Amino acid sequence: MNAPLPIIACAALLALAQLDAYAQDPVSRIRAHVVALAADTEGRMTGSAGERRAADYIGAQLRRIGAQALPGQGDYRVPFQFTAGARDGGSSIALGGRAFAGRTDVQALSLSDSGTIAGPVVFAGYGIVLPDGQGAGYDSYASLDVKDKIVLVLRYAPEAADPQTKHLLARYSGLRYKALAARTRGAKALLVVSGPNSPNAGEPIPMSLDTALSGSGIVAASISARVAEALLAPSGRALSDMQRALDSGKHVAGFDLRDTSVTLSASVVREQQTGNNILAYLPATQPSPGLAQPWIVVGAHYDHLGHGQAGNSLAGKDEAGRVHHGADDNASGSAAVLAIAEALAREPRRRNIAFAFWSGEELGLLGSAAFVANPAFPMDRVAAYLNFDMVGRMRDNKLVVQATATSAAWPGILERANVAAGFDLVLQDDPHQPTDSASFNQAGVATLNFFTGAHADYHRPTDTADKINYEDLDRVAAFATAIVKRIAARDEPMTFVKVEPRAGDRASRAGVRIFTGTIPDYTTESKGLLLGGVVGGGPADRAGLQKGDVIVEIGGQTIANIYDYTYALDAMKADQPIKVVYLRSGERRETMLTPAARK
Ligand SMILES: [Zn+2]
Ligand SMILES: [Zn+2]
Known about the structure:
About 30% of the residues lie in helices and about 25% in strands. By secondary structure, the chain is α/β, with parallel strands linked by helices. The protein has three domains: about 5-85 and about 270-490, Aminopeptidase (3-Layer(aba) Sandwich); about 90-265, Glucose Oxidase, domain 1 (3-Layer(bba) Sandwich); about 510-595, PDZ domain (Pdz3 Domain). The strands form four sheets. The chain has an eight-stranded mixed beta sheet with strand order 1-10-12-11-13-16-14-15, with helices on both faces. It has an eight-stranded mixed beta sheet with strand order 3-2-9-5-6-7-8-4, with helices on both faces. β20 and β21 form a beta hairpin. α2 (about 25-40) packs across α12 (about 470-490) and α13 (about 505-510) packs across α15. It binds zinc ion (2 copies). One zinc ion binds near residues 330, 390 and 435. One zinc ion binds near residues 301, 329, 389 and 435.
């Protein structure tokens, strides 16, 4: 047991040791930043105490460096609100003298409004309406009057006879779309049940984070098979018969349920929380009033996954729930931005250089999106945005620079800066990356994103500070500093080039609900998908895939690149084995991989 005094003495010694590190060389300093940020015992989840501790550390460093709060802000800390999630606050349903409550029988949909609705129930098949001009007609509501009633529908889409119609119906089978269809026809509430022939048969739908941002203007809940059967019994109908008829392609008319005045009470609790961006700047020392773009922004997200509670953790079974340190993702990027600020503080500057430490990146680029929506200076006054996300695990001198197509000036700037740095640069055009540079690209700013590649510790508790390559992390910061200096010295503006997203690219990224446990190696150009590793115990590992394998075919579909792979992910189903053809040391092999559902 320690008495209070020695503890204080220890803290003072630690602070002295840290000060000592700052007086030392840049590599020791950048190491001290990563170690301090990644040491957190809670893992920097947006809105948590760990986030606030990391923010305090970054703020103290900015103060030491001499950076100022942004114009119009009294503080480095700039808060933003976000919906942290939704949970069922105790929904229930009552019919014919019976009442059901509890998650196994009734759960509000995360898109539901809260409220209590009483009224008659209408069965409306799968609840799907194809808009005109789709080449096929399908309307579950044809000849049905659902005004002021409660609509009961099946989850998913019918297994129609021809694949093209099936594919079309599936596109309009999302819960939001079904809720919209019911609401626009005047229904007061929507009930959804998974039919006996569907996946998750008879189970209510768990609430998920991604659809929880707001209510969709209707009371909506999912119910168990037990509740659905109780609803249908007075009409003498069975759910299985009706689903079989609907799936056979026959048009089955909807109908009013007999003797069923139902009272549905849906309760959705949306939790609002506050995240904190940390923003500062070094004002121009030689301002040029004629410059059209007097700002440059350099940024990185400093938030991470906490204990992995938001569902985007890749922790194996044995490590689930442990703190995710995020040393590479993204203490490394945050440390790089601090190092760039430190270097630029001593240089003459024609432009203002802003330094951004975003929170909420892991929950969907929330912090950078909030800034771009409500910026401290107009976005068309920003010459460029440089982003750093996972820059601490360089291998073989390889540095990936993404979004290079956002300005015609980038290739030349990068080439000249790299004369001194000497990296093997991998330039990638595409600005539609799943990191904060995407927010600035959307706002019409020329961006770059720096990245040293994926690895087996990505989004796992094992992403720790001892695995960081500090020498090369410091070289990345020095390289970026040289780039910022070049942009800061320019007379002419950086002209932004808009790059259209590849068809389906965004949708597939947002819609992926499948976990394969593959870790693509983005740093190497290869024909097929080169694996940088596999998540231990994950589906790819169990299928016998390993680092260095090149996937060339999935489910009969050729895989030429990462895009093909994302499309292939779309077509995969959880728990359904799919054939994977891959090359190992040039030899063609095949295996069966069984994807898991993402939590
Ligand atoms: Zn990241
Ligand atoms: Zn991440």
